[in-house]
Specification:
By secondary structure, the protein is an alpha/beta fold. The protein has helices at residues 9-27, 35-49, 58-65, 79-97, 122-129, 131-137, 143-148, 156-185, 217-234, 299-315, and strands at residues 104-107, 116-119, 203-207, 211-213, 240-243, 256-266, 269-278, 284-293. Helix 2 crosses helix 4.
Length: 326
């Protein structure tokens, strides 16, 4: 939904809805973006609501949001493009984790920096704004011919139609007789044996909530975000069934493993410990430690990079009963 500009009551209402949704996103702890990313999102939303979406260029944003001067060159300084990508991922994660029921979605389509606003009321608003479309839907088929004052000339299709319909029904009757004969003449086909349940051959894995040591807000955010990234990436592996946390005690077929971990943020250094435990006997089948520098990276980037490395290392473990993951 692109809000209208012009001062009408509908335009004001749309703008208020967009600003309310923006405030909802910025206030949510699940919207993981740095301060300059939040300023970037606020700027492009307000400029679009003010009718300046066509002016949202890399040079304009760099000067207004990131403090660059008039000599800014987007080819040599990709700060705007990089920040736009991070905000796109942060918005996708927000709507995936907690914003699926929000009345409006704010997205940044690729290829530009102007945001897009959409809601469930878009379709009904379009129909209400264009009553002529509804009238055309219910107009009778012969209305235009009656309005023109004369009938259209007879075509070859009109002459062949009375002959073609009986011929079609005749062909269908012949086919109906042939099909039963085939069942008598051809040997009976044995039904295929039921395939074994594919779920029995899959590894079940539970991603438990990671423990945030030290109790810092940044450590808590990273622990929650990393678990979300691990679940999303594990669900793409065909040989795995990802279970919700707390379901490991239920009876299941196939192998069952639990992925656990703890995080500690000391200044700008992240310490992460991860282990994979066999649910059958409690044995640790894989474990590793990760240390990352957070000074020049966002939490989202570190989460994505660490989650990808964890999945790759788990997949190469030979102690998984169902074999290595693809």
């Amino acid at each position: 939904m692109a809000p209208e500009v012009g001062g009408g009551s509908q335009a004001r209402q749309d703008a208020e809805s967009v600003r309310a949704q923006l405030d909802r996103i910025l206030a949510s702890p699940e919207f993981l973006a740095p301060e300059r990313g939040r300023r970037f999102l606020q700027y492009i939303v307000e400029e679009t609501l003010e009718g300046h979406a066509d002016q949202l260029k890399a040079s304009t944003i760099a000067q207004a949001v990131f403090g660059r001067d008039a000599s800014f060159d987007a080819q040599n300084d990709p700060v705007v493009r990089i920040e736009a990508g991070r905000i796109r991922r942060a918005l996708e994660r927000y709507y995936l984790v907690c914003g699926s029921s929000d009345p409006m979605q704010i997205t940044i389509p690729k290829g530009g920096y102007a945001p897009h606003f959409s809601s469930d009321e878009d379709t009904s608003n379009i129909e209400a704004a264009d009553p002529a479309n509804r009238e055309n839907k219910h107009r009778q088929p012969g209305h235009e011919r009656r309005q023109s004052g004369h009938e259209r000339p007879i075509s070859y299709r009109d002459l062949l139609l009375p002959v073609g319909i009986p011929a079609l029904f005749g062909a269908m009757a012949v086919l109906a007789l042939i099909r039963p004969l085939e069942s008598y003449l051809s040997p009976p086909k044995t039904p295929p044996a039921p395939a074994a349940s594919t779920l029995e051959s899959k590894i079940r894995i539970v991603v438990e909530p990671f423990v945030a040591l030290g109790g810092t807000p940044r450590g808590v955010d990273f622990a929650k975000g990393l678990v979300d990234q691990l679940i999303a990436k594990l669900m793409k592996v065909d040989s795995l069934v990802v279970l919700a946390p707390g379901r490991s005690g239920m009876e299941t077929t196939g192998s069952l493993f639990s992925l656990q971990g703890s995080t500690l943020v000391e200044g700008m250094i992240l310490h992460l410990h991860v282990r994979l435990i066999n649910g059958a006997d409690g044995a640790v089948v894989w474990a590793n430690q990760y240390d990352r520098e957070l000074r020049d990276q966002t939490i989202l980037d570190v989460e994505d990079e660490v989650a990808t490395q964890i999945i790759m290392e788990i997949s190469s473990s030979r102690k998984l009963s169902a074999g290595p993951l693809p």
